[in-house]
């Protein structure tokens, strides 16, 4: 088997399938594992106990999928550059600011389908192939793998940056048993820039490459199922699902490329919608309107909690106070406490 030829064929097939770029890494993730263990030891994973659970499997790919010798790392641009800019969304406090990756269809299934297509295409060529595909779905160190596979470097905000495409892309992996030639790990190009660190509204980037999840708005509004700490609520502003501030200020994102996937275009006008309209959704409406969207995963209570915080931070208007007051007694205790906090902001 001519593995060099196979590798360039894989590049070609990946493009045909719609990936923005693929690369190949070996499975030595020792350095990334050490970084992870230091981060865990500092307690920066907040309530994400699952970060501990799989132990060494995260940085020993052969323990997760036996026989793995290489990882094909793929990236897919997701930014719809025609939508209302995130900077603008942050300024309009009566409207919602949603992380750009979550405006359209949930990427997990889409990425996995594309990865499976690529693996099957390889299988057609080489015969039986040992493989498993992942996209944010298992203990896989996606960012470290992407960096090793030459797709970009991990910036000081901990996202992967590609010099020709910025950082607005999804990652996925194929763990495989074919000994493909590997790519060179990407060089680090943040240089002396530190723009993302002070840009974080809640100070979650405590040092370069060190994110305290317990302060990170993405964690607080998505993974976190409980209350949002009161001292961080004002800084959240109108960010109701995730946060892009560290990416927004990154100079490399002037190279952002428009996504070729129409599925990532906004649904329900989420790039330009009033907080009050979203807060009025019943649970049934929430489930229906977020079908196929990553937002559905957080559930209705977290959705209402996030909106209550954003409404508390909006400029005072009688309609906001009325909507908060009307909901106060029909929600869970957790949401009620956030609504009461929001009402207090308007009473000051
Ligand atoms: S803003 Fe600057 S320091 Fe932060 S990731 Fe981008 S280049 Fe690196």
Brief synopsis:
By secondary structure, the protein is of the alpha+beta class.
Helix content: 40-55%
Q: Which ranges are low-confidence, i.e. pLDDT below 50, for 5 or more consecutive residues?
A: none
Q: What is the CATH topology classification name of the largest domain?
A: NADH Oxidase
User: β content, as a range?
Assistant: 5-15%
How many distinct domains? 2
| Tally of helical runs | 16
Shape: elongated
CATH class of the largest domain: Alpha Beta
* Derived structural class: alpha+beta
Q: Residue-averaged pLDDT, rounded?
A: 95
Strand order of the largest sheet: 1-2-7-4
CATH architecture of the largest domain: 3-Layer(aba) Sandwich
Q: Major sheet, described briefly?
A: 4 strands, antiparallel
Distance between the termini: 73 Å
Say which molecules are bound, naming each kind only once: iron/sulfur cluster
Helix and strand element order: HEHHHEHEHEHEEEHEEHHEHHHHHH
Subcellular location: Cytoplasm
Function: Catalyzes the conversion of epoxyqueuosine (oQ) to queuosine (Q), which is a hypermodified base found in the wobble positions of tRNA(Asp), tRNA(Asn), tRNA(His) and tRNA(Tyr).
Family: Belongs to the QueG family.
Catalytic activity: epoxyqueuosine(34) in tRNA + AH2 = queuosine(34) in tRNA + A + H2O
